UniProtKB/TrEMBL annotation, chain A:
<feature type="transmembrane region" description="Helical">
    <location>
        <begin position="209"/>
        <end position="232"/>
    </location>
</feature>
<dbReference type="InterPro" id="IPR000515">
    <property type="entry name" value="MetI-like"/>
</dbReference>
<dbReference type="GO" id="GO:0055085">
    <property type="term" value="P:transmembrane transport"/>
</dbReference>
<feature type="transmembrane region" description="Helical">
    <location>
        <begin position="303"/>
        <end position="332"/>
    </location>
</feature>
<feature type="transmembrane region" description="Helical">
    <location>
        <begin position="359"/>
        <end position="380"/>
    </location>
</feature>
<keyword id="KW-1133">Transmembrane helix</keyword>
<comment type="similarity">
    <text>Belongs to the binding-protein-dependent transport system permease family. CysTW subfamily.</text>
</comment>
<keyword id="KW-0472">Membrane</keyword>
<protein>
    <submittedName>
        <fullName>Putative spermidine/putrescine transport system permease protein</fullName>
    </submittedName>
</protein>
Automatic annotation (TrEMBL), chain B:
<dbReference type="InterPro" id="IPR000515">
    <property type="entry name" value="MetI-like"/>
</dbReference>
<feature type="transmembrane region" description="Helical">
    <location>
        <begin position="12"/>
        <end position="35"/>
    </location>
</feature>
<dbReference type="GO" id="GO:0055085">
    <property type="term" value="P:transmembrane transport"/>
</dbReference>
<feature type="transmembrane region" description="Helical">
    <location>
        <begin position="178"/>
        <end position="200"/>
    </location>
</feature>
<feature type="transmembrane region" description="Helical">
    <location>
        <begin position="131"/>
        <end position="157"/>
    </location>
</feature>
<dbReference type="GO" id="GO:0005886">
    <property type="term" value="C:plasma membrane"/>
</dbReference>
<keyword id="KW-1133">Transmembrane helix</keyword>
<keyword id="KW-0813">Transport</keyword>
<keyword id="KW-0997">Cell inner membrane</keyword>
Length: 392, 273
């Protein structure tokens, strides 16, 4: 626009730089940190540095050589921070239960023993004579681990290092998350496609009202909309009162704190994301196509099936991706309208992070959600040829 | 099914009206409850009363949360609008390398699930010492607001006819004058509506706030979330009433600006053309 090309480029870069650095520090870095936490495993290594280096070369059969035992004794003698030691013990106990008492007894015995004299570990506790405790110690030593990522999909490493099934609830929750998101997407498409078609075909105030009805929820706070559903769906709520008054039901239906409530509220919240992309695609279709198809003898259904629907499909696909993507990460609505059996993956992540401070698991589950959502976003960007979600 | 048969038209009308009702009714249903004197957040309305609005002002937790929301909302809006507008101006340059990649990166905070970002932010903030500070919450909210500013400002910059700026340059205006007298006034509606979007986003943010804010930074949205979850008090309806009125005013403002911008752009184009 002005100046030399090089100057223009420099000034453009300078303009973009503050936001780039800001997002690098407070968007990319936190996500990278979360991923790092989910694959790092340095707690045991930190309190037992000598054992870590000594046990690395052990082949895992029988009992480790004497130098490993000496390294462990040296590590236990060295003063360590109470909290770090506790973390390490917890980590080891998750490999083989019983490590807590074993290490506690050993540590106090080693510290009481006179320095400079050899200590017989198996004499303190016969469990040191078993290979599996040493193997667990070796497994817990590396800086990086895949155990959180495996646990996120209900897998674990067996003692021989092969991947095996583990029992936990994560897979159930992932299936549930996908099921709820898919169901909400289908419902939004079933309501949103005909609605967008009626809106696109109408004119004047009818079209304005129909569009305003989509934009108003989009503008209203998500919390307000969720609060409204809590009020409407409760046992003494308006919906149940109306159903009782009309005589459709004899006693109130359970609509809240279960799957029905979550699906209703989420469909309401996400419907605008389906209607708007379809509507904008439909606006681009020439209005005379349907009459043309009719004049050539096609029935209305046939004209819809062969003319309008194929042309509207890109809009449906964008809308469906958008709804599905947003639904996957939903937290507030299931948390307030759903019961314990309707919590989605976000709730589990929040539970691990704030409830039990298990950052590794929170990070591993978060990584799965992050990768899925980002992949869907890039597919969406391809489909709509613009990475711009607002006012799509 | 014949084309335009009365039954088909009637079906369309019924379906359209039902969906409009489904979309709008829940939002309207909560409004009258703000004035209900009953202690239960439910119909029927016993008698009209403003006690829950009084509660909103007098209860320390609610009052504090409103003030927090205003502080954090203003901070996040100012931060995101300034750096977002600068970046949108930079993205407009044809010579910016990796422009499309940068644009994707700037919009990503809108896509990444809030819980995921919340976990990462909590880990980062613990190390940086930003956990449970106003600055930390403002920065976290600003990250979420930035995409809205970028989208809004980019849209208004895209609507500027480049020939106006070239005309100004050819008449002897230096780049700074062109920017100050031509580009900025034309982009201003986009900047303001971006700021409005940013403020609305911050006002409604709950999830990241759950992770990074301490009890002292409890925002109105966070307080409403807790109140719906723990003890459903009608104060929630009063807060919702304020939020709905507030966002409608903001939406009206943004709509007005967009209308004015279209008119300005048209007028400018016709003058320049």
């Amino acid at each position: 626009m002005s100046g030399s090309p090089a100057r223009g480029r420099v000034s453009a870069l300078l303009l973009v730089a503050p936001l780039f650095l800001f997002l690098a520090a407070f968007f990319v870095w936190p996500l990278a940190m979360m991923i790092a936490v989910s694959v790092t495993d340095g707690t045991v290594r930190q309190v037992m540095p000598e054992t870590a280096s000594a046990i690395r070369s052990w082949d895992g059969s029988g009992l480790p050589p004497a130098q490993v035992q000496e390294a462990l004794i040296a590590d236990l003698r060295a003063p360590s921070e109470q909290m770090a030691f506790g973390d390490a013990v917890r980590r080891l106990n998750s490999e083989v239960s019983g490590f807590r008492t074993l290490l506690g007894r050993t540590a106090s015995a080693v510290r009481d023993a006179p320095p400079g004299q050899p200590v017989d570990l198996a004499g303190i506790d016969p469990r040191w004579g078993e290979g599996r405790y040493w193997q667990a110690l070796q497994r817990a030593m590396p800086n990086y681990t895949d155990r959180n990522l495996l646990a996120a999909v209900d897998l674990k490493r067996d003692t021989d290092g092969s991947i095996a099934a583990d029992v936990s609830a994560n897979r159930v929750i992932m299936v549930r998350t996908f099921t709820i998101a898919a169901l909400v997407t289908v419902l939004c498409a079933l309501i949103g496609l005909p609605y967008a078609m009626i809106a696109a075909a109408s004119t004047g105030w009818v079209r304005n009202v129909m569009l305003l009805a989509v934009l108003l929820p989009l503008w209203t706070s998500l919390l307000v909309r969720t609060a409204s559903w809590v009020i409407l769906l409760q046992n003494e709520g308006l919906i149940n009162k109306a159903l009782l008054a009309v005589g459709i039901v004899d006693q109130p239906l359970q609509l809240i704190f279960n799957r029905t409530g979550v699906i209703i509220a989420m469909t309401h919240v996400l419907l605008p994301f389906m209607v708007l992309p379809i509507y904008s695609v439909l606006l681009g279709i020439p209005r005379n196509l349907m009459p043309a198809a009719s004049s050539l003898g096609a029935s209305r259904l046939r004209a819809f099936w062969h003319v309008l629907l194929p042309m509207a499909l890109p809009g449906v696909a964008s809308g469906a991706l958008l709804v599905f993507m947003v639904a996957l990460g939903y937290y507030i609505t299931p948390a307030l309208v759903g019961g314990a059996e309707d919590q989605m993956i976000s709730s589990v992540i929040a539970f691990f992070a704030t409830g039990t401070a298990n950052w590794g698991m929170a990070g591993a589950l978060g990584l799965i959600l992050l990768v899925t959502t980002t992949a869907l976003y890039f597919v969406y960007g391809r489909l709509s040829r613009s990475p711009n979600m607002v006012g799509a | 099914m014949a084309a335009n048969s009365p039954a088909f038209r009637a079906g369309q009308i019924v379906f359209g009206a039902a969906v409009v009702f489904f979309l709008v009714a829940p939002i309207i249903a909560i409004l009258p409850l703000a004035f209900n004197s009953s202690v239960f957040l439910n119909y029927p309305i016993e008698s009209f009363s403003s006690r829950w609005f009084v509660e909103l002002q007098t209860s320390e937790t609610w009052r504090r949360s409103i003030i927090n929301s205003l502080i954090i909302g203003c901070g996040a809006t100012a931060l995101s609008t300034v750096i977002g507008t600068l970046a949108a101006l930079g993205l407009r340059h044809a010579r910016l390398p990796f422009a499309s990649l940068l644009r994707v990166m700037f919009l990503l905070p809108m896509v990444v699930p809030a819980v995921v970002l919340g976990v990462g932010m909590q880990i980062l903030y613990t190390r940086l010492g930003l956990a449970s500070t106003y600055l930390g919450v403002i920065v976290a909210h600003a990250v979420l607001c930035v995409p809205f500013v970028i989208v809004s400002v980019s849209a208004s910059l895209g609507g500027i006819d480049g020939s106006i700026e070239r005309a100004a340059s050819s008449l002897g205006a230096n780049p700074a004058t062109v920017f100050r007298r031509i580009t900025l006034p034309l982009a201003l509606p986009g900047v303001i509506s971006g700021a409005v979007f940013a403020f609305a986003t911050s006002l409604d943010e709950v999830v990241i706030t759950l992770f990074v804010a301490g009890p002292n930074q409890r925002t109105l949205a966070r307080q409403m979330f807790a109140s719906i979850r723990e003890n459903v008090s009608p104060t929630v309806a009063a807060a919702a009433f304020l939020l709905i009125i507030g966002t409608l005013c903001l939406a009206g403002l943004a709509g007005l600006l967009r209308w004015r911008q279209n008119r300005l752009a048209k007028a400018a184009a016709s003058e320049a053309g």
